[in-house]
């Protein structure tokens, strides 16, 4: 499906109106855009999505086709930047995006800002971005045209924060925004847009439901279906749910699905809070096996039997503990079915060749050497589905739509060079970078 933001423009607008009506406070930047323009079509042409059957009862929803980001965050990021550009044209204000991130969200937003410059949607004088990531995410940082010269790098810095916990970047960035928003607007005319708002992502991710409704509709005759996703906070699944609501309420021109699919969550041991919340229990206790140097458990089939560490991090992107979206997802699963599983790196490596083969069926090439992988979302998701089928957590006759939300290596997406990174050890360090971006 080519350019889903352009193809489903009216449906996305309906999603924005529905989300806006449910809010108790208005967003800083309006959720809804104006009339569609040729510039918008050009700007969003990297939002292609594929939906491919890769084996009986298994499909891959490819959300990673933008070569500048290789993650599903592209769709939401382009929509956010388009909203920022519309705000600039409507008000004459300049916009400075500030985004804490574990990696992918910031990469996709930087790519979207660069595309805005390239396509004429906005200029560097009107639109800029400050990205803040934890030191643990250093290997996630990707290069983009915003590093082309020193003025662009100063106006659009990538800041690495020395924090105790990766999620602390949210606290650090929110403090800087609270302290300096008024000052920056008064002295530079830049309106700071702090990007952590669920609706920024739900609205764009509603497109997943629209693609399914066209390509693989759920009819009365369809097999049972679940959507499987490697999640941190499950924004993508909540976006799908919003799109499904619009379909069933007849708020789009697309045919409504016969029912809502289940949701199946895949997580890693260090951040398994969505799965444990869904199960209503803590994770199992692991016992160290001194003979083999691994940790083992046999009490919970939803967790790895063997792992190198009970708090293992496969991918730093998945850094959120106790996400506030747990209750919403729990309610959807309780109503429509689904479940969850936690995978280890050993699980991923044991099934690596099978995962590569499945991905190849969808036209996705995964590097043969797993040490080259910098983004594990797709590998984790496919591994989780294989594990869940082996353990009958997903029935054999259930259709599974796997959300391919991210995969890249350094060869696919060049890493950010060390000299293009700004380091912050304190709130004041980050404030200096934000002020420099606004005044550049």
Automatic annotation (TrEMBL):
Pfam families (UniProt xref): DUF6002
InterPro entries: DUF6002, TrpB-like_PALP_sf
Source taxon at top rank: Bacteria
Name used for this protein in its record: DUF6002 family protein
Taxonomic source organism: Streptomyces hintoniae
């Amino acid at each position: 499906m080519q350019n889903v933001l352009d193809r489903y423009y009216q449906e996305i607008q309906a999603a924005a109106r529905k989300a806006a009506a449910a809010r108790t406070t208005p967003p800083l930047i309006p959720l809804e855009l104006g009339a569609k323009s040729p510039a918008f079509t050009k700007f969003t042409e990297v939002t292609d999505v594929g939906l491919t059957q890769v084996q009986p009862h298994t499909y891959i929803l490819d959300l990673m086709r933008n070569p500048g980001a290789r993650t599903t965050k592209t769709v939401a990021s382009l929509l956010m930047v388009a909203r920022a550009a519309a705000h600039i044209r409507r008000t004459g204000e300049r916009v400075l995006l500030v985004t804490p991130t574990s990696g992918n969200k910031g990469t996709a937003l930087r790519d979207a800002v660069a595309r805005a410059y390239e396509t004429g949607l906005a200029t560097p004088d009107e639109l800029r971005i400050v990205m803040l990531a934890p030191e643990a995410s250093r290997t996630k940082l990707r290069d983009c045209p915003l590093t082309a010269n020193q003025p662009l790098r100063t106006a659009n810095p990538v800041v690495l924060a020395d924090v105790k916990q990766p999620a602390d970047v949210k606290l650090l960035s929110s403090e800087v925004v609270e302290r300096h928003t008024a000052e920056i607007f008064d002295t530079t005319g830049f309106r700071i847009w702090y990007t952590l708002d669920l609706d920024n992502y739900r609205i764009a991710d509603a497109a997943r439901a629209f693609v399914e409704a066209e390509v693989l509709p759920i009819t009365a005759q369809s097999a049972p279906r679940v959507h499987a996703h490697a999640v941190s906070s499950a924004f993508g699944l909540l976006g799908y749910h919003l799109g499904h609501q619009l379909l069933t309420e007849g708020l789009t021109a697309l045919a409504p699905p016969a029912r809502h699919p289940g949701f199946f969550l895949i997580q890693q041991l260090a951040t398994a809070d969505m799965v444990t919340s869904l199960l209503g229990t803590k994770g199992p206790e692991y016992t160290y096996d001194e003979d083999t140097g691994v940790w083992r458990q046999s009490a919970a089939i939803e967790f790895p039997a063997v792992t190198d560490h009970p708090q293992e991090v496969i991918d730093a992107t998945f850094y959120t503990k106790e996400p506030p979206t747990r209750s919403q997802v729990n309610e959807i699963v309780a109503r429509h079915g689904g479940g969850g599983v936690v995978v280890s790196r050993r699980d991923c490596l044991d099934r690596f060749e099978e995962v590569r083969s499945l991905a190849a069926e969808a036209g996705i090439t995964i590097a043969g050497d797993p040490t080259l992988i910098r983004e594990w979302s797709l590998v984790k998701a496919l591994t989780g589905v294989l594990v869940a089928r082996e353990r009958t957590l997903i029935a054999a006759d259930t259709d599974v739509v796997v959300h391919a939300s991210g995969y890249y290596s350094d060869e696919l997406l060049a890493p950010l060079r060390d000299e293009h990174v700004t380091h912050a050890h304190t709130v004041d360090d980050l404030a200096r970078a934000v002020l420099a971006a606004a005044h550049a």
